[in-house]
Amino acid sequence: MSNQPPADLWQLCDLQTPWCIHTAATLRIANHLQAGLSDVNELAAAAHCDAYALDCLLGYLASKGVFEQTAPGRYALNETARGLLDPGTLIGLDVDGFGGRMAYAWGTLPSYVRTGRPAYHERFGRGFWEDLEANPAIAAQFDALIGPAGHGLPNPNFDITGGWDSIQSVVDLGGGTGAMLAELLRVHPHLQGTLLDQPGTVARSTEIFEQAGVASRVTLCGQSFFDPLPPGAGLYLLRGILNDWPDAETVAILKRAAEAARPNGRVVVLKSVSPNGGSRTLTIEMVLLAGKHRTLDEFKPLVRQAGLEVVSAGPQAAYYVVECRPI
Q: Which InterPro entries match (predicted)?
């Protein structure tokens, strides 16, 4: 039996605190404070909101350690509140943008648990990917959140069988705006790279590749990874992709990768497979998309269905790395 004291269910069920933080972020209260405002009436005027309601919200957050109340009706930034100045944090919290998609999507959790299928459309009228396609501004925020602005620079340090000298070209499937591919090309100067994602997404990658100094070694490919892929590369990378998809779609993606990798290429999967025997947990991509985090034993049958075989799998410093070859 666990020696931990029993949890407080009401404390665990608290929705007030996260929604107050979301609201303060959406109203850019931290930015207004940084600009020199401190009186709640001035803050309310700048944020276009009700002064009494804002005073209540900030007073509550100050009691929780977010913001400091310096006098009745006057507020200041503290270390925690300064986190709301971070652009990546704001993307994830602003309910008027992509942060609202994630926040409100949690309201569809009962439908997901009952059926195992996403219910995003119940709240937003479309499936997740269709919603991004219909709302380019939201799609751009999603790209930013999963890119360097939200998650920082990805770690390109993982080993593959035979070493990187045996690979001349990499296709990053669903590689977003190119942060991972840019880091791989920077660390391995001999590599050529192809970034494959939706057209609007790859169009936002130019600055990242130029800043990394690798733009001359990159080809952009704006398409779906459910369509035939550029053939003949030495390595097809799927980093944090397959965990977004149910089994049928995962097999379809792997089949396309297997087709393109034949006869001598390989498919490397990061951030989607875990060692056998671990405990399950709930993640946002399950709610948004009915994605799955699979153990190695759960993943292997899908790999075989796709015409691949796992040739190595194991933990490394940054990732659990699964390497596959076409059968």
A: COMT-like, COMT_C, COMT_dimerisation, SAM-dependent_MTases_sf, WH-like_DNA-bd_sf, WH_DNA-bd_sf
**Residue range 118-134: average pLDDT?**
96
Which CATH entry fits the domain spanning 88-150: 3.40.30.10, 2.60.120.620, 1.10.3430.10, 1.10.287.1350?
1.10.287.1350
247-277 pLDDT tens trace = 999 999 999 999 999 999 999 999 999 999 9
Q: Report how far residue 236's alpha carbon sits from residue 173's, in angstroms, rounded to the nearest whole number.
A: 7
Domain residue ranges in the chain: 9-85, 88-150, 154-326
CA torsion 263-269-272-278 (nearest 10°) is 100
CA distance 250 to 255: 9
Angle subtended at Cα 102 by Cα 197 and Cα 242, rounded to the nearest 5 degrees: 40
Fold of 154-326: Rossmann fold (3.40.50)
The residue ranges of DSSP E strands in 51-168, in sequence order, are 68-71, 74-76
Q: Which long-range contacts (CB under 8 A, 24 or more apart) does 25-29 make?
A: 25/84, 25/89, 25/90, 25/93, 25/94, 25/99, 26/93, 26/94, 26/95, 26/96, 26/99, 27/54, 28/90, 29/54, 29/58, 29/67, 29/75, 29/84
SS3 193: strand
Structure tokens at 281: 């947990």
- Average pLDDT on 127-135 reads 95
Long-range contacts, 245-249 (Cβ 8 Å, 24+) = 245/289, 245/291, 245/292, 246/289, 246/290, 246/291, 246/292, 247/292, 247/302
Dihedral angle sign, alpha carbons of residues 308, 311, 313, 317: negative
Q: How far is the C-alpha of 302 from the C-alpha of 258, rounded, in Å?
A: 12
What is the fold of 9-85?
Answer: Arc Repressor Mutant, subunit A (1.10.10)
Residues 226-260: b if buried by 16+ CB within 10 A, e if exposed: eeebeeebbbbbbbbbbbbbebeebbebbbbbbeb
